[in-house]
Design brief:
By secondary structure, the chain is an alpha+beta fold. 29% of the residues lie in helices and 27% in strands. It contains 13 helices and 23 strands. The longest helix is centred in the first third of the chain and has 20 residues. The protein is globular, with a radius of gyration of 25 Å. The chain starts with 8 loop residues before the first helix and ends with a helix. Bound molecules: adenosine-5'-triphosphate.
Length: 449
C-alpha cells in the first residue's frame, strides 16, 4: 500500500550532498556501489543518534555492559552461528536485461526495461530459477591467499557479544538478567542495495543481547519491545510513521522463538520498512558456540546452586537506517507568512541537530562581528555552533533551517548598547530578546533531552 507521506528521497539526497551530510563513496571515480560517506554534518547527526542509543542502552542503566569487539573473527564463529550455511538470499537473474533481483523481494523491484512492471511481469523477462547467494564478504588473513587463511567481514555485530559472554560476565560480576551492547560496522554483499543509505553493503549496527533465565524470556521480550519503541519516539519520529510488525511462523528465523520488527514509514512507494528487530533467540547462539568451541558458555545461578544456558533477547538496529528515518521524518517544505519564497526545513530534534545554534552579526561593522565572534567562542565551550557573517540575514536563516539548526542568534545594533541578542527559534520562528551572558543557560535548557 502506498504511503500517505510524500517520497522525499531525491530531494534529501541532493540536500545531503549540498550541505555535507552524505556523499557517495569514491565519487570522483564514479562512485562505489551502495557505499556512502558521512560529511561534516552527517557525522555529527549519526554520532548524536549513536550517543543517544549508547546512553539509553549502556550508560543510563546498570544491567547492560558495553563492548567493542573486532570486525574480523575466527572463521568457525560463522559456522557456529549458521551464517556459512544459511546467510543467503535467493538470487534470480534476468537473461534479457541482465538485471539481478532477490527472489523474495520481486514485489518491490522494477523491471529495468519496463519500470511500470515487476521483474517477470514484462513479456520479454527471462528469469532464471533462484539460486542461493551467501552475503558474507570474504578476505584473507596474512600474506597467503588460500582457503586456510580465509576470514569474513562480520555481517552482524552480535556474534562478538556471544563469544565474549563469559569474559564480560566474569569481569563485571553481572548477574542474570543482564545485557551486552555494542555499536560497530557490519558488511553484507547485498544483491539489491539501494534507497540511499537504507540498504548498503557497509553499515553500522547498534545491537544489544540481553541474557535471561529461561522461562522469563517472554516477559523480557515484551519489556524490550516497549523500551525500543519508546526510544524511536523520543528521537522525534512521528508516532503515525512507526509500527510493529510481528514475524509470522514462516518469517521466523529457525532459531527465533518470537520476533517483531519496528517499522518506519519512509514515504512514497518504499512505505513502511524495518529499522530495528527485537528477537527472542532462545539458547540457540550460546549452545552452538559451546558445541563448536568446546568451551562452556553457561551461567552459574549461585542462590539456586544450578547451571543453565541463558536465553537471549536481542535488539538490533541500524545506525544508518535510523539516520535516514530521522532525515525523512524531519524534511519539510513550507510557506512562510508574508514571504514570497517558501523555506525548506529539517525539523530535527534539537539533541540530534549537528549544529545547535547559528551566530550572526547583523552587519559586518560597528563592533558586531567582534561581539558575535566572542559569543561564538563562549558558546562553543559546550555546544557545536556556527558563525556566519556572509549574505543577507534571511539567507543565513534559510541555510540553518535546511540543516536543522534549532536556534539562530543575531547580534545587532542594540546588542552593542545593552548586551542582549535576538534568538530565533527554527520551528515557531519566534524571536526572544536574551541577555548575551544568559545564552549558554538558555540554550542548555532548551537542548536538554
Ligand atoms: P532486511 O530484511 O532489511 O535485509 P534484516 O532482517 O536482514 O534486514 P537484521 O539482520 O535483523 O536485518 O539487521 C538488524 C538491522 O540492521 C536492521 O533492522 C537494519 O536497521 C540494519 N541493516 C541490516 N542490513 C542492512 C543494510 N544492508 N544496510 C543498512 N542497514 C542494515
Amino acid at each position: 500500500m502506498a504511503s500517505p507521506h510524500a517520497d522525499v528521497m531525491d530531494k534529501l539526497v541532493s540536500l545531503c550532498k549540498r550541505h555535507g551530510f552524505i556523499f557517495q563513496s569514491s565519487e570522483i571515480y564514479g562512485g562505489t556501489g551502495s557505499v556512502w560517506d558521512y560529511g561534516p554534518l552527517g557525522v555529527e547527526l549519526k554520532r548524536n543518534i549513536k550517543d543517544r542509543w549508547w546512553h539509553a542502552m549502556v550508560r543510563g542503566r546498570d544491567d547492560v555492559e558495553g563492548l567493542d569487539a573486532a570486525i574480523l573473527m575466527h572463521p568457525r564463529v560463522w559456522e557456529a552461528s549458521g551464517h556459512v550455511a544459511g546467510f543467503t538470499d535467493p538470487l534470480v537473474d534476468c537473461k534479457t536485461c541482465k538485471g539481478r533481483f532477490r527472489a523474495d523481494k520481486l514485489a518491490d523491484a522494477r523491471c529495468p526495461q519496463k519500470p511500470s512492471k515487476r521483474p517477470g511481469e514484462w513479456e520479454t523477462c527471462a528469469l532464471t530459477a533462484p539460486r542461493q547467494f551467501n552475503l558474507m564478504f570474504k578476505t584473507f588473513m596474512g600474506p597467503v591467499e588460500e582457503s586456510a587463511s580465509m576470514v569474513y567481514l562480520r555481517p552482524e555485530t552480535a556474534q562478538g557479544i556471544y563469544v565474549n559472554f563469559v569474559n564480560v560476565q566474569q569481569s563485571t560480576r553481572q548477574k542474570i538478567p543482564f545485557g551486552i551492547a555494542q555499536i560497530g560496522k557490519a558488511f553484507r554483499n547485498e544483491i539489491t542495495p539501494g534507497n540511499f543509505i537504507f540498504r548498503t553493503r557497509e553499515f553500522e549496527q547498534m545491537e544489544m543481547q540481553f541474557f535471561v533465565e529461561p522461562g522469563t524470556d517472554m516477559t523480557w521480550f515484551d519489556q524490550w519491545k516497549a523500551d525500543r519503541m519508546a526510544w524511536h519516539l523520543a528521537l522525534g519520529l512521528d508516532p503515525d510513521r512507526l509500527r510493529f510488525h510481528e514475524h509470522s511462523k514462516e518469517e521466523l528465523a529457525h532459531y527465533a522463538r518470537a520476533a517483531y520488527d519496528i517499522e518506519f514509514d519512509f514515504g512514497g512507494s518504499l512505505g513502511f520498512q524495518e529499522v530495528e528487530g527485537v528477537h527472542n533467540r532462545g539458547d540457540f547462539d550460546l549452545t552452538r558456540h559451546q558445541e563448536y568451541s568446546g568451551k562452556k558458555l553457561d551461567y552459574f545461578d549461585q542462590p539456586n546452586n544450578r547451571r543453565f544456558v541463558p536465553f537471549v533477547i536481542e535488539t538490533s538496529v541500524g545506525a544508518d537506517r535510523v539516520t535516514l528515518a530521522v532525515l525523512v521524518n524531519a524534511y519539510r517544505e513550507e510557506h512562510v507568512a508574508g514571504e514570497a519564497e517558501g523555506r525548506t526545513v529539517l525539523g530535527l530534534h534539537p539533541t540530534l541537530a549537528p549544529i545547535k545554534a547559528g551566530v550572526f552579526p547583523l552587519v559586518k561593522k560597528d563592533g558586531m562581528p567582534e561581539f558575535a565572534t566572542r559569543l561564538t567562542a563562549e558558546l562553543r565551550r559546550t555546544q557545536p555552533v556556527f558563525y556566519d557573517e556572509s549574505g543577507s540575514i534571511g539567507r543565513r536563516y534559510r541555510r540553518q533551517d535546511e540543516v536543522g539548526t534549532p536556534f539562530c542568534v543575531t547580534v545587532d545594533g542594540q546588542t552593542i548598547a545593552d548586551q542582549t541578542v535576538t534568538v530565533r527559534e527554527r520551528d515557531t520562528l519566534r524571536q526572544d530578546r536574551v541577555a548575551a551572558n544568559a545564552l549558554p543557560a538558555y540554550l542548555a535548557d532548551r537542548l536538554a533531552v
